[in-house]
Specification:
Structural class of chain A: mainly beta
Oligomer: heterodimer
Order of helices and strands of chain A: EEEEEEEEEEE
Shape of chain A: globular
Strand content of chain B: over 45%
Largest interface: A-B, 25 and 23 residues
Number of helices of chain A: 0
Distance between the termini of chain A: 36 Å
Radius of gyration of chain B: 13 Å
Radius of gyration of chain A: 13 Å
Number of strands of chain A: 11
Largest sheet of chain B: 5 strands, mixed
Number of helices of chain B: 0
Largest sheet of chain A: 7 strands, mixed
Strand order of the largest sheet of chain B: 1-9-8-3-4
Helix content of chain B: under 10%
Structural class of chain B: mainly beta
Order of helices and strands of chain B: EEEEEEEEE
Strand content of chain A: over 45%
Distance between the termini of chain B: 38 Å
Number of strands of chain B: 9
Chain lengths: 113, 111
């Protein structure tokens, strides 16, 4: 497994602002993904964070709203842009190596007022 | 990826075995069955996975039917700390292949 940390663990933001969430892994991994979990719902995959290239987004998610960076094999960021109350969710990163099991970070709880 | 069907919720008495079913009737030959759980909005925790044979680890056992169309996760002695949402996911072990979560089963372990 891998030790995964996310920053911040939680935040309260005003509508119209942006928040950048960091995901750090203690060892190099091949795959990094970002998920959203809206209140009372299951996890929804936002995108695959590709090292050195643009992220691959799932249907319904766009780069302008959720820009993602992955500068190396241990770190990624997700930005939630121009936030509205509907963006209030838990945002989670997950990591894996090639065909291996995925492991999840602790999540970032975002509240937008 | 094949879809899975799980009951919305289940109850289990503390100390008894919890048996969580999952149907995956359209599973492909190279797809594994994975189980994760999520305790009170924490990050999902990996439990176990398998292809054909039954699997056991320190957390749970996974029983897969011979036709692979369904499986059961068994927590042998449920405790209150096992109260969580349990997700059954099928996925082929291909590079960069993704996990798609269904709605899961809320397991309530009661004293």
């Amino acid at each position: 497994s891998a030790v995964i940390s996310q920053k911040p663990s939680r935040d309260i933001c005003q509508r119209g602002t942006s928040l950048t969430i960091q995901c750090q892994v203690d060892s190099q991994v091949t795959m990094m993904f970002w998920y959203r979990q809206q209140p009372g719902q299951s996890l929804t995959l936002i995108a695959t964070a590709n090292q050195g290239s643009e992220a691959t987004y799932e249907s319904g998610f766009v780069i302008d709203k959720f820009p993602i960076s992955r500068p190396n094999l241990t770190f990624s960021t997700l930005t939630v842009s121009n936030m509205s109350p509907e963006d209030s969710s838990i945002y989670l990163c997950s990591v894996g190596r090639d065909t291996d099991t995925q492991y999840f970070g602790p999540g970032t709880r975002l509240t937008v007022l | 990826d094949a879809k899975t069907t799980q009951p919305t919720s289940m109850d289990c008495a503390e100390g008894r075995a919890a048996n969580l079913p999952c149907n995956h009737s359209t599973i492909s030959g190279n797809e594994y069955v994975y189980w994760y759980r999520q305790i009170h909005s924490q990050g999902p925790q990996y439990i176990i996975h398998g292809l054909k044979n039954n699997e056991t680890n320190e957390m749970a056992s996974l029983i897969i039917t011979e036709d692979r169309k369904s499986s059961t996760l068994i927590l042998p002695h449920a405790t209150l700390r096992d109260t969580a949402v349990y997700y059954c996911i099928v996925r082929a072990p291909l590079p960069f292949n993704k996990f798609y979560f269904g709605s899961g089963t809320k397991l309530n372990v009661k004293p």
